[in-house]
Amino acid sequence: MSALPAAPRFSDPGVFGRVAVLMGGTSAEREVSLDSGRNVLEALRSRGIDAFAVDGIPALVEAIRAGGVDRVFNILHGNRGGGEDGVLQGLLDALGVPYTGPGVLGSALTMDKIRTKQVWMAEGLPTPGFARLAAGEDLVAAARALGLPVFVKPSCEGSSVGVFRILGEQDLAAAAEFAAGYDGELLMERMVQGPEFTVGILGDLALPSIRIEPAGEWYDYHAKYVADDTRYICPGMEGEEEAEIGRLALAAFRAAGCSGWGRVDVMRDRETGLQLIEVNTAPGMTSHSLVPKAAAELGVDFASLCWLILEQTLPEQTRVEGREGGAHA
């Protein structure tokens, strides 16, 4: 059984001031971000927080210049106009505006799947073997050298954008066609033969794991955001195995320079055991999303989860109504 999250430090929504819920943007994950953002905005307002929606980074800059932002709940997914690649975090650090989620280092590093895996390997943490493909590199030759089956995915995208599952030679053509028109690095990763899990992180706590069982052959974009027949089993493991996956997820999160909240995706290979896949530093908060499901297993409803995440933007010694908070910022 996972530990319970710490109780909220504050009950007065006024402690947060005016909160910009940052969503949308121009990344490939815009629509998912808008869905997440609407849910977060509704949840914060339901708890009396003075929250408002902001679509994209330029609009946020204007709102900050106008003096109307005390802190940011970042639910902007992806890069290239998203909020998970460190650019937003550096901007807000420079402007002195607190925000949810990891800082510059953790955000920038984990947006790049290849370099995240390199850090994990240096730390002795388990992750599937991989090949790094520069733009224009021969994907077919790389797949044959690494050995099928493999997954191919952009190193710096999320939400299963541009992911190819290559089981045999017949699957190479479609992936090679995508690679020929893609201008960034691609990650080619040995396919894990076994079940898929995810572990939400809230501060220093690993939430209960979730075992993901899609109705189809794999957990693609449709299974994540559209289908209603994907099964989510929480907790995904029991006893010492559940404790082990929680410890591994926390270690992976911290090794990648992350703090605050996020989600670590893990798979269990039939031969090599638990294998780290990637980190999400602004996880989805849609009706299909996994961090809210895991929090609910501990009795934390969606609005309370959003409150706890937003509390992470408050400094350790925030004085409200004559008392001080004592948790970490």
From TrEMBL:
MF GO annotations: ATP binding; D-alanine-D-alanine ligase activity; metal ion binding
Active site: 29, 159, 289
Provenance organism: Marilutibacter maris
Keyword Transferase annotated: no
Entry's localization field: Cytoplasm
Residues noted as binding Mg(2+) 1 in the record, renumbered to the chain: 265, 278
NCBIfam families: D_ala_D_alaTIGR (TIGR01205), PRK01372.1 (NF002378)
Statement: the UniProt record of this protein carries the keyword Magnesium: yes
Gene: ddl
Pfam families assigned: Dala_Dala_lig_C (PF07478)
Function, in words: Cell wall formation.
Enzyme class: ligase
Residues of the ATP-grasp domain: 117-311
Coiled-coil positions: none
Superkingdom of the source species: Bacteria
Gene Ontology biological process terms from the UniProt entry: cell wall organization; peptidoglycan biosynthetic process; regulation of cell shape
Protein name: D-alanine--D-alanine ligase
HAMAP family: Dala_Dala_lig
Cofactor-binding details, from the entry: Binds 2 magnesium or manganese ions per subunit.
Protein keywords: ATP-binding, Cell shape, Cell wall biogenesis/degradation, Cytoplasm, Ligase, Magnesium, Manganese, Metal-binding, Nucleotide-binding, Peptidoglycan synthesis
Annotated Mg(2+) 2 binding sites: 278, 280
